[in-house]
């Protein structure tokens, strides 16, 4: 969990029901920058020799830039910020919509490299509720040989965290908050509503 005054402030803007779509998208963009910055602490670096104007020194770079995978729709609002911090990254896409009655994800898009062996993957989705969507997405990635998945979420429910933990998938989670729980519609409480609708309008 990332506990920082600016992280709390942007997450508060997103939670506030009075925040309009443009301000919501701006807050998610800035929050993603901070969460990906923290997630990147887990990346190995490689050192290499450079010359400054004054003389030689050792530089450093991310050894193996990850594949970024925003989960559509809501994860789209995190893609630009993550790519700006990790410009050498490549990007894949997974489209999932949660059924409003069963709460199970329905997949409508899988655009991922076929072989992810040796490739770290950063999955971007603002919300982890029941965990059905992220387990589905991370399983697609693990089935392609990935053994290093970092999930970046704005906020999570304890039920979703437990489902990810119980999945046995090779993943770590970076989030700004673990909220109280889920209501009878499987919405995170207090949460922020539906991150897709708040960014892009209702379907
Ligand atoms: C939301 C959210 C997650 C998922 C979380 O997406 O962005 O992907 O629900 O719920 P879960 O943990 O219970 O699976 P939604 O299905 O509403 O689609 P959208 O991004 O198109 O709005």
TrEMBL record:
One of its GO terms (cellular component) is cytoplasm. The keyword Transcription does not apply. Its cofactor is Mg(2+). Its EC number is 2.4.2.9. GO terms for molecular function: GTP binding; uracil phosphoribosyltransferase activity. Pathway: Pyrimidine metabolism; UMP biosynthesis via salvage pathway; UMP from uracil: step 1/1. Pfam families: UPRTase. The keyword GTP-binding applies. Keywords: Allosteric enzyme, Glycosyltransferase, GTP-binding, Nucleotide-binding, Transferase. SUPFAM superfamilies: PRTase-like. It comes from the Bacteria. It catalyses: UMP + diphosphate = 5-phospho-alpha-D-ribose 1-diphosphate + uracil. GO terms for biological process: UMP salvage; uracil salvage. Residues 2-201 form the Phosphoribosyltransferase domain. Belongs to the UPRTase family. Catalyzes the conversion of uracil and 5-phospho-alpha-D-ribose 1-diphosphate (PRPP) to UMP and diphosphate. NCBIfam families: PRK00129.1 (NF001097), upp (TIGR01091). This is Uracil phosphoribosyltransferase. It comes from Virgisporangium aurantiacum. The gene is upp.
């Amino acid at each position: 969990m990332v506990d920082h005054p600016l992280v709390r402030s942007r997450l508060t803007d997103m939670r506030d029901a009075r925040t309009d779509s443009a301000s919501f998208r701006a807050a998610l963009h800035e929050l993603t920058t901070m969460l990906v910055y923290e997630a990147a602490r887990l990346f190995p670096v490689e050192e290499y020799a450079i010359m400054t104007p004054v003389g030689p020194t050792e530089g450093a770079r991310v050894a193996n830039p990850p594949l970024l995978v925003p989960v559509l729709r809501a994860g789209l609002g995190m893609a630009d910020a993550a790519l700006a911090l990790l410009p050498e990254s490549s990007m894949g896409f997974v489209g999932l919509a949660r059924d409003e009655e069963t709460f199970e994800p329905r997949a409508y898009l899988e655009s991922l490299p076929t072989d992810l062996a040796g490739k770290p993957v950063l999955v971007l989705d603002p919300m982890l509720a029941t965990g059905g969507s992220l387990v589905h997405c991370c399983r697609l990635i693990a089935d392609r040989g990935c053994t290093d998945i970092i999930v970046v979420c704005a906020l999570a429910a304890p039920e979703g965290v437990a489902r990810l933990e119980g999945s046995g998938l090779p993943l770590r989670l970076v989030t700004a908050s673990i909220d109280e729980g889920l209501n009878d519609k499987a919405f995170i409480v207090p949460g922020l509503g539906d991150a897709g609708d708040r960014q892009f309008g209702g379907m």
